[in-house]
Amino acid sequence: MSRTIAIVLMAGGALVALALCIYLYFEPLSGVSDTPAPLLTGFGALCILIVTFILARLTHGGWRVLLIILTALALILSAVAAVFMMHAEVAIALVVSAAGFLFLLAYQQTHRQESRA
Amino acid sequence: MTRLTFAAVALAALAPAAPLLAQEGDWPTFNGNLAAQKYSPATQITPENVGDLELAWEFETGDVSDGSGELPTSVWSATPILANDTLYLGTPFYRVFALDPGTGEVRWSYNTDSTLEALTQPALKSRGVTYWEAETPVEGEPCQKRVYMGTMDSELHALDADTGELCTDFGDDGILLVNKWNDVNAEWPLSLLQPPTAYGDQLFVGWAGADWEYSVASPGTVFAIDARTGERNWQVDFIPREIRDRTGTANVWASMSVDEERGILYLPVSSPSPNYYGGMRTEPIELATSVTAVDTETGEIIWSRQLVHHDIWDYDTGSAPTLVDLQVNGETVPALVQSTKQSMLYVLNRETGEPIFDYEERPVPASDIEGEEAAPTQPFFMTPPPSHDFESYPEMSTLANLVSFGQCADMIDGMRYEGLFTPPSLEGTIVYPGTAGGMQWGGGALDPETNRYYVNTSKVVQTLTLIPREEYDELQGGSGNEQGLYPQIGSPYGFRLLNWVTDNGLPCWKPPYGTLLAYDLKTGEMLWEVPLGRSKKWGFFGPAGWGSPNIGAPVITAGGVLFIGSTMDARVHAIDPRDGTELWSDHVEAPSVANPAVYTYEGRQYVAFVAGGNTILSPEVGDQIAVYALPLDDD
């Protein structure tokens, strides 16, 4: 798995989730229009999107660990929120983003080990 | 109980047994038929193909307000009426739309130009229109078929069903001011929110008021008026003349049913004013909170059965009794079933008012309020089984109490609760079922082939606290909102009515919050009970097993599918009546707090849901009618 694909998955999943949340907020028949649920979930997706690019550049350090923990938390909470919003498509997008996140971490770990070797 | 036994027996002797089925294809009345069965003989949609249902068309009236602007919030609970090959809709802005039933195209519309002020209710409300047609129409004459639309400010408009033009022979140039008969204790106009019931050449008109507002108010009446002219034929009164200076209401604000063979009108009569203090009306008011049967021709009371004595809980009888011919031990028994806020089902012989199943008068707690004389006993109808436990309210949710830092426990600390019919008190009384039900104004649906009855119910815990007048006046000068402070002006007490929820809106009691039930009326057994819909807060939905508080009613079809909206999640549902399994659901614009309508037009079966919302359930309001059908290829 290349770094680029990991970033595309993570950012792409978050971007799709964000777009879906915006749509759901404004679509009268979404069942969640004009409610905080899509805004909160969308905010989570936006944070993940931003973090993707920061995390891609951070390969070591204490901030990286903190960011990884916060990102994992944001992914889990946003996905749970999406499930309780009864919109599986948002949850699926966030699962894709989570997969990208894990691939990115795996890539960075492998890359660091190779550098050390 | 008031009984005119001779009249009842005479009627029984004359009455032939007859089926009470809706006319094939149409949905001409609020409850599908005058027997209030909410039953459609349509068979096209079945449990096997209901999953293929698709939105055939939708229409938005534009008549909606969330209360954030100049207009009050709208509450739209209209049942669409299918008659005259047209679908008629009344809106909470008191406009009428005539739509093509197959496409939703507007054929005509009419604006009553009613004032859009919440004169008697916290919101602009409407439950739609009434359709009437002459038995022997005069060829070429207009207004042989009419649509009637009532307004909050007591006007009843009569329109030609084909053109939407006013029928000028009715009232004053087509508009009848019903409030002209509001001549006792008139504190507010008689609001015509529930469409009148049309039978023969008469309209039976009830009205809504504000019995939480004033102690002395308009005494309850139902008017029978000539459908052509608007002239009053008779009226029936529910408050004895000698105590009208101390009370009021006991009105009929919900729909009514008619036994067409026997010529009997059945009236669900509400509680007297004020809602929660009866110290000024300690005399028996026998017709209040009752089912009352009257002669459609004369208005003479045939029988009446009181369901709550000296009602101080606002347990209005709030839905049309459903008429059913019960097959018991090989005999046909003309019966009715009355669903109620207090969650009991009253199955009565509709000729005499006598209970079909056993019941008992049980001792109930006494009031500790000075001047109040709570009834020493209340009637308990335990067959069919009620939807709520009468001995205890649901357990407190540990989670809700934890996350609210103990607010749930604090809210009921020191409050009084000794089961159903615990009287209101100064320290606060836990009320369960809540004053909004239990079973609400929609009532239930009956399959006349099987004698099975389906009804939805809310399981909501409330707290009610009487507040001495001086203290109340210091709290606030006027009337609060629907769930808060109310004055009961003229009585020694105002009151505070709250749902037992945290400041964040979390229910403090364990789910389910609402269910759907099926009963076999032949035996009085409950067949099944399932959670209905999902609760919703901030756009997040609760688990399916929790159910949702609900308003509105189910309808049942001969095809074997039950349709219902009603829930907070703004979904409309198709349910398998055999076991309560959800077969299909879809999102609509707002909670569909109206009774659905099922009709057949040009050979295609449609199911129509009005998605108007009700702020009691959720802040979402809407102006959508969503009409579903099977794809044309599958027909």
From TrEMBL, chain A:
The chain crosses the membrane at residues 7-26, 38-58, 65-84, 90-107. It comes from the Bacteria. Keywords: Membrane, Transmembrane, Transmembrane helix. This is Uncharacterized protein. It comes from Pseudoroseicyclus tamaricis.
Automatic annotation (TrEMBL), chain B:
InterPro entries: PQQ_b-propeller_rpt, PQQ_mDH, PQQ_rpt_dom, Quinoprotein_ADH-like_sf. It comes from the Bacteria. One of its GO terms (cellular component) is membrane. Residues 27-607 form the Pyrrolo-quinoline quinone repeat domain. Gene3D superfamilies: Quinoprotein alcohol dehydrogenase-like superfamily (2.140.10.10). Residues 1-22 form the signal peptide. One of its GO terms (molecular function) is quinone binding. Its cofactor is pyrroloquinoline quinone. CDD domains: PQQ_mGDH. Transmembrane segments: none annotated. Keywords: Oxidoreductase, Signal. It holds the Pfam family PQQ. Belongs to the bacterial PQQ dehydrogenase family. This is Pyrroloquinoline quinone-dependent dehydrogenase. It comes from Pseudoroseicyclus tamaricis.
